[in-house]
Amino acid sequence: MLTFLFWNVNNKSLQENIVRLVQNHRVDVLMLAEYDDTIPIGNILFMLNRGQESLYHYVPNNSCKRVHLITRFNDSMMPSVYEDTRSVYRHLTLPGLPEILLVVSHLPSKLYHNDSDQISSSIHFAQKIRQTETQIGHTRTLLVGDLNMNPFEYGITSVSGLNATMSRRKAMKAERKSNDVQYPYFYNPMWNLFGDVTPGPPGTYHYNSGANSWHIFDQMMLRPALLNHFNSHHIQILETDGEESLLSTQGLPKQSDHLPILFALEL
Amino acid sequence: MIDLWPNDITVDQVSVRAPVNILREQASVLAQKTQNLVKADVQPYEREFWELGKDVVGIKEPLDMPSQPFKYSFELVAPVLNNYSYLLFAIFHNVDMYPTQVKLAKSLHVDKETRELSANTEEEFLTILGDIFKAPKTKTIIQSLIAQSTSLPNQ
After folding, report:
1. Could you tell me the residue ranges of all domains in chain B?
2. How far is B146 from chain A (nearest CA, A)?
3. Is the ipTM reported for this complex over the cut 0.85?
4. pTM above threshold 0.95
5. A103, A216, B124, B153: which has the highest count of C-beta atoms within 10 A?
6. Which has the closest alpha carbon to A76: A55, A60, A65?
7. Can you give the residue range of the structural domain that contains A73?
8. Domain tally, chain A
C-alpha cells in the first residue's frame, strides 16, 4: 500500500501540522502546494527525520516552484520526466512494483484566469500528460494537485481536457472518441466526496461565494490502468492532523483555506 | 566439463570491499547523521566532469585525467538547496583496487603534497577518508549546508 497526501498550505507556516499528518497517516509521498519559500522546507525534513532510522527525502524540482515533494524513497526512484512551472512529472519506479507516472500540479487560479483560460490550460495540460505517457510507454498515471477547478467543470470533464469521469465503469472503457480522435479517460473519485453524506467536510476548499461555497479544487485522478490498484474508499478529505482540528468551530478550514486529501494505492 | 577454476572463486567468498562501496556506505551514514539535509553522491567520474572539475580539484593540465579505469567522485549534495553540490574528492584505482589514489578538492588540501593521497590497503583508505571527513573545511561546508537548509533552532 502506498499512501499519498496532498495539501495546499496557502503560504502558511504549518510545519507542525504537516509533520503530524505525515506521521499519523504513515504517508509515503507528501505533496505540498503554495509552500512559503521563506520557511526552509528542510525544516519539515528535519522534523520528520529526527530520531528516525528510515528517512524521508526531499525531491528537488528543476523549474517548478509551485509544488514540493517529500517521500520515503530516494529521489533516484522517482526521476523527473518533465517539468514546467506548474507541474512536475515523476516516474515512480519502486522495486517490485509497477511503474507509475505521478503528475503533481497547481493549475492557474480563478482569481487571475477566467473559465476560458482554465479550459485552454487544461487542454494543453492533458496533451502534455498524453505525450509523457507515450514517451514512457505506459498509462499508469496518477494526477494529483490543486487544479483550481471543480470535478464538474469543463477543463476537467471535456474530452480534450482532462476527460475525467465520475464513473469507474465508464473509465474502464479506457477511451472516448471525439472527431475521430481517441482520448483516454481519467477516473475522478473526488465526486464521491461532495456534500454531507460521505465522511469528512463537504469539500477541500472554502470560498464564501454564495450557497455553494465549498469546492473540490484539490483532486486526485487516475487512468484506467491503475484502477485495479485503487479502492474508492481509500480516499478522504482530512479534517484533523491527528491531534489538532483543521476546521474552525464553524466547520471551515482553519489553518489553510484548503484541506488535505489523503489516498492510497494498493500495489 | 572440467572446472579448472579454484574452489574459492565464488560470489559468497568475496570478503574484500570495493572502495566505491565504502564511499557509498559513508554517503549513507552522512545522510543519516544530517537527516537527509546533506547527502553524498558517489558517481563514476567522467571525463567531461573531470574537465569541469579540474580547477576545483586543482589539476591544471587538461590531459591530466588519471589513467586508472575505475574513477569515482564524492560530492556533498543539499537536496533542499536545489541540489547544490560540492565536489569533495575523487578516487582512482586499477582493477586490483589498491593502491587507490585520492585527489582532494582544492579547498581541502594545503599544498601540492597533500593534494593527492594514496592508500595501499583498505585500512589506509579508511584512515584517509576519516581525515577528509574530519577536516575543518569539510565540517564547515556541511554545517553551512545544514544551516541554509533549515531555520530550526537547537539542532
Report:
1. 19-148
2. 8
3. no
4. no
5. A216
6. A60
7. 2-265
8. 1
